[in-house]
């Protein structure tokens, strides 16, 4: 059986990693979809799809389960999103998500949707990691080590600071 | 003479219905354009174009005036919007709207634009109907009966609740 | 029961009209989708969506069956086309088409698809009508009378000649 | 040597004009890119690309330096923005900007980026000019005379008022 | 009075240059629109918008008439093309073109359209210039000298050869 | 060192497989980009991105080299293609391709590009495989076994026949 899990992963953090491990206990193969793949260099979406593939690939290599990591561009049309996903990634049997919109779209399309117990939801969120990066607070303990490496390689914190800087021309 | 009236109709409510009736007194045929046709499953735009066609079609069948109901996708370019509309719908002689942007765009393009006396503007707005749906307050008296039927058939209130749920991944 | 029939209708001709009549014998309501709605002023697609709505609306008003006429823009992604259609038009139970691609896409999406006996297929095709318009040969007997009227109102033959004229800058 | 300077210029004001003069002291030719070229008739972006070309062209004709004024449409993908710019405008050697995102994107692409001393930054901003237009306060002293002329020719203040008017359908 | 002239200019050749000179005799200012601005590196469209701006700018600097050179991206919708053009370039009074589609679109939009006597049409066409480049035949006498310079600076002939090479993966 | 190889893979065949093996001898990791990812259900591009991921993933699992398989959507702008690719996939040091356009675009962007000795080029091409599928001739010996399995699972030959069927409405 194959499971599907989608997120923006800005960046991929330990909450995501735990989520993937929980799914791995359920299924034979996991497809991880990187949402809003085309967006980068913004305050909410600092990292490119390629950088996010690197983060996730290095963070899940330890897993026994085969993992596909696939960027998915936005079409900005919720009504065709599920078709877009199923055309872009290998076939899957069940979608895992706690995101209400994602769950709704898959359910309306007739998919089985499962949720996963969230691990320290407040600490482990992309919003919190980015907030800490901008505030100069510790953030490395919230992400897998390889993610911190990718962030460093891309000068990710500096990029985030720069693209978050409001400018009034 | 043919009149044009455009809205997002999320959902079509009694204010819209009254507006259409007032236009019907003026013209022989009415073209109703469904704006932002491609948008659905969001807090501000819960319903698909197809669902909105159903709502409007069933709500105006009683009218003596011939009515065309035509979805219009956004091009996200105000400067070509009037051309886009006139290419997408049958020809019309006068545009009806109280929306300042719509009025402005038609006026700059040389169209005659008329406004209509608003019927209980504060009660009858899409924003208010959606707010009531989310708050669990009565909303059915604000829409034509067939609209309530379409909302029920699509589990529209549940959908609205789900897609309005903020999620912080 | 509601049936769906899609075409480009460049222009709507008697073959289409017969097709609609045959569907009308089967179902309670018909949704006619106007494909490639955004395309006009080309040799293969001379007419706008609005002009095609006028053609079809005037040609099917005699039918007892309720008919919805809905323009559908291309997304240039076959894999999401069925979702795009079902979001854009009112719900339907069966798709009617003799177009192999359309049939395939609906079948892969799990829809019932029916075909219709073609009426003098070679004479009644959009390609043949446009060829005759360009060659100055008779074409009016191949389309419903109201279609000829719309073509005349838009100087459609002259437009077709102009946009078909190859130009090497 | 050729320099590049990009802005939205909604509208082009004396701060922009001073910026261009400062660049002119550095380089032989200036390419002025008009960003978000496709956007107009909104509260933040009232003027079309064509109107902004007129504003800038008339405001820089006095300069000895050859100036190219080129509209640049958004692709809504920061990661390809620099390539998009370099394909759309004549080649340049150095990019001038105080906008942190623009600077970052050019730097990641290996371009030399220079900043310019800002001239009375708070007074001379597009946001402030538009605020004054809407509030009925004086704004003409903040823009070059030819810009005021273009604003008047397009009834720009009235347009801004109209498109800024919130409407709740 | 201001005149508008649009072409793809792949590349700008002496036929175009003569056309511009003829228009210059008629009007006070000329707006030259570079069509299909987003297309480059193909057999029919080898040059970028920026390269085409350079070609045209250097070829018309001798003219007394003020000239605006503005890239125009395709929207792939003929029905909104005129609106797109008029929003992208400064206002103009008359459109010059021998292209039947361009003439038709401007005429349907109510513009005055003028044609120009063609100068040795067969020799001076972009198709012929590109054919000669690929065939290794002389082409420099067909373009203004500054265009040959731009072609050389961009290794344009080699690029054209490369992008014209059919590849069957 | 990481190498990049891009193709449409309609379908992935033994020529591609040999190409990947040759690259694997050169580099530590391979990124395989699936071009025209958004296109499917056409005569030239029958398979979805997801199906092509399955084909490639199963065909390269035997390789010692780590392999990333990443779909890349067309932006229909050659000038930004390299930036789009580098933002979508993990970073790479050298691009492998025999496609002249791909080579040219990478070279203009300053990348090292290498070619690979082609293995029986005429037999092993996507065009030839699709021609054989349509003609009912043997094709399985031209593709890795897992590709034949994916084609069978998706009724790929039947789909290809259907979408290749010309239809004149």
Automatic annotation (TrEMBL), chains A, B, C, D, E, F:
<feature type="domain" description="Cytidyltransferase-like">
    <location>
        <begin position="4"/>
        <end position="132"/>
    </location>
</feature>
<dbReference type="GO" id="GO:0000309">
    <property type="term" value="F:nicotinamide-nucleotide adenylyltransferase activity"/>
</dbReference>
<keyword id="KW-0808">Transferase</keyword>
<dbReference type="InterPro" id="IPR004821">
    <property type="entry name" value="Cyt_trans-like"/>
</dbReference>
<keyword id="KW-0662">Pyridine nucleotide biosynthesis</keyword>
<dbReference type="InterPro" id="IPR006418">
    <property type="entry name" value="NMN_Atrans_arc"/>
</dbReference>
<keyword id="KW-0963">Cytoplasm</keyword>
<keyword id="KW-0067">ATP-binding</keyword>
<comment type="pathway">
    <text>Cofactor biosynthesis; NAD(+) biosynthesis; NAD(+) from nicotinamide D-ribonucleotide: step 1/1.</text>
</comment>
<keyword id="KW-0614">Plasmid</keyword>
<keyword id="KW-0520">NAD</keyword>
<comment type="similarity">
    <text>Belongs to the archaeal NMN adenylyltransferase family.</text>
</comment>
<protein>
    <recommendedName>
        <fullName>Nicotinamide-nucleotide adenylyltransferase</fullName>
        <ecNumber>2.7.7.1</ecNumber>
    </recommendedName>
</protein>
<dbReference type="GO" id="GO:0005524">
    <property type="term" value="F:ATP binding"/>
</dbReference>
<keyword id="KW-0547">Nucleotide-binding</keyword>
<dbReference type="GO" id="GO:0005737">
    <property type="term" value="C:cytoplasm"/>
</dbReference>
<keyword id="KW-0548">Nucleotidyltransferase</keyword>
<dbReference type="GO" id="GO:0009435">
    <property type="term" value="P:NAD+ biosynthetic process"/>
</dbReference>
<dbReference type="Pfam" id="PF01467">
    <property type="entry name" value="CTP_transf_like"/>
</dbReference>
<dbReference type="InterPro" id="IPR014729">
    <property type="entry name" value="Rossmann-like_a/b/a_fold"/>
</dbReference>
């Amino acid at each position: 059986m194959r499971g599907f899990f989608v997120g923006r992963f800005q960046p991929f953090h330990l909450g995501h990693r735990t989520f993937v491990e929980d799914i791995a206990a359920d299924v034979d193969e996991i497809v991880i979809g990187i949402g809003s793949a085309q967006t980068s260099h913004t305050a909410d979406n600092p990292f490119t799809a390629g950088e996010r593939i690197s983060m996730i690939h290095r963070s899940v290599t330890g897993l026994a389960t085969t993992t596909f990591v696939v960027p998915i561009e936005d079409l900005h049309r919720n009504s065709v999103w599920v078709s877009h996903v199923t055309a872009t990634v290998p076939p899957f049997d069940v979608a895992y998500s706690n995101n209400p919109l994602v769950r709704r779209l898959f359910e309306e399309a007739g998919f089985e949707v499962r949720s996963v117990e969230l691990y320290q939801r407040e600490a482990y969120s992309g919003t919190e990691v980015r907030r800490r990066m901008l505030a100069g607070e510790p953030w490395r303990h919230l992400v897998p080590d390889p993610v911190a490496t990718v962030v460093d390689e891309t000068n990710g914190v500096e990029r985030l600071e720069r693209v978050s800087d409001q400018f009034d021309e």
